[in-house]
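Working notes for the structural subgroup meeting. M.R. asked for a predicted model of this chain before we commit to crystallization trials. I am recording the input and output together here so anyone reviewing the notebook later can reproduce the run.

Input as submitted:
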Amino acid sequence: MQKLFPAEGETLPRLRFPGFREAGKWEEKRLSEVGSVRMCKRIFKGQTNPRGDIPFYKIGTFGGVPDAYISQEIFESYRNNFPFPKNGAVLISAAGTIGRTVRYKGELAYFQDSNIVWLDNNEKLIADGFLFYLYQLINWAPSVGAIQRLYSDNILGAQVIFPSIPEQQEIADCLAYLDELITAQTQKLAALKTHKKGLMQQLFPVLGDE
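Returned structure, recorded in token form:
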């Protein structure tokens, strides 16, 4: 990523894919020129249940396992009548662990307002897949207070630099492939650790057994 994206203060990366080496400088803009911040309509505690139809992700369960649910009826009404992320949108945590990202892949799910937001980006300028990796390079400057958080102005004020859409896609595809490899190897490692633990339990006597 350090080679595929320009270093701070530069407009060209050190490494470019064939076909883009003569494409010229990347374009620089603030995120406010690329899109606007959106969030889901607020869900109140009384509208949630520990079990239900649609997972409701709060900042504490964002990217993990939900502990609250809303009804199908509320979900359909809010999704159809209020802002809701499009398939492929990059959700970002605006509280807690600032700047954590999750790709929304069209699953049935709902997200906590103000704490989980997304940029309704102009995909003719920045594609969702590229934006996902671009976010990881931004040094977010959250508002200072009792609890640090990202407000819309913090997000929209971020300066970003990006190439043409075809080059964005090439970069995003490369990094996504590496992410898939990392996930596969991580799963293999977890399986080997479980296998090792099982073998040790069989090879060593339990303390206290004769």
